[in-house]
């Protein structure tokens, strides 16, 4: 592929900041020092602005209806239930049919579909994880297992690799997964250079990865 791959980072209200910002950073700075710039990274949301966790206001680059086709789509997580039982973040978006339809449509054409943390719940909801291995944040393992099956969900895994669909554990695990994907696509040396630039302590050979059927 000669052109830069389009990397769409989905965001929504109450998205966990590091869930999306970690991968955004990894893909954005990969190849910056040698000028190769293999990724074109942008955010996309249903509405604008977005209020992430702790009221961080974000203006997405695109809306769902005008987002360029993505080669890589990242679905982050974040959220839970408020004291009165009201869902927020992914627990709310799991019933957002417009968003689910868009993710499903994108999944039909993306080279890689990635999830971080409870973003896995959204992938499970649209049915793309059938027969796949999966992982998520420790606090959502039970819910993901109910949606899939005990054999599919691996609580101990940092990364669940189904080749075209790759999931990570919670929050900071999204950085590890993103570097892992860079390594798969461009080589371990490129990923290591990116981690070094970020001053991120990353060890490819120490990642807890479970692989699905290819």
From TrEMBL:
Pfam families recorded: DJ-1_PfpI
Domain of life: Bacteria
Coiled-coil zones: none
Domain DJ-1/PfpI: 6-182
Entries under InterPro entries matching the protein: Class_I_gatase-like, DJ-1/PfpI, INH-QAR
Biological process terms in GO annotation: regulation of DNA-templated transcription
Protein name as annotated: AraC family transcriptional regulator
Organism expressing this protein natively: Leptolyngbya foveolarum
């Amino acid at each position: 592929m000669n052109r830069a791959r389009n990397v769409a980072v989905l965001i929504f209200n109450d998205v966990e900041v590091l869930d999306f910002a970690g991968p955004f950073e990894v893909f954005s700075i990969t190849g910056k020092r040698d000028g190769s710039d293999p990724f074109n990274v942008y955010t996309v949301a249903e509405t604008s602005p977005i209020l992430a966790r702790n009221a961080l206001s974000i203006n997405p680059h695109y809306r769902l209806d005008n987002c360029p086709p993505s080669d890589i789509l990242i679905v982050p997580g974040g959220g839970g239930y408020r004291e009165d039982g009201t869902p927020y973040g992914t627990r709310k978006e799991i019933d957002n049919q417009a968003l689910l339809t868009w993710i499903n449509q994108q999944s039909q054409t993306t080279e890689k579909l990635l999830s971080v943390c409870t973003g896995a719940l959204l992938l499970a909801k649209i049915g793309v994880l059938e027969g796949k291995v999966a992982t998520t944040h420790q606090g959502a393992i039970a819910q993901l297992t109910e949606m899939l099956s005990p054999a599919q969900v691996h609580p101990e895994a940092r990364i669940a690799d189904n080749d075209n669909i790759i999931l990570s554990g919670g929050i900071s695990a999204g950085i590890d997964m993103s570097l892992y994907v860079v390594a798969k696509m461009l080589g371990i040396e490129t990923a290591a250079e990116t981690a070094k630039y970020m001053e991120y302590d990353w060890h490819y050979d120490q990642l807890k990865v479970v692989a699905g059927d290819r």
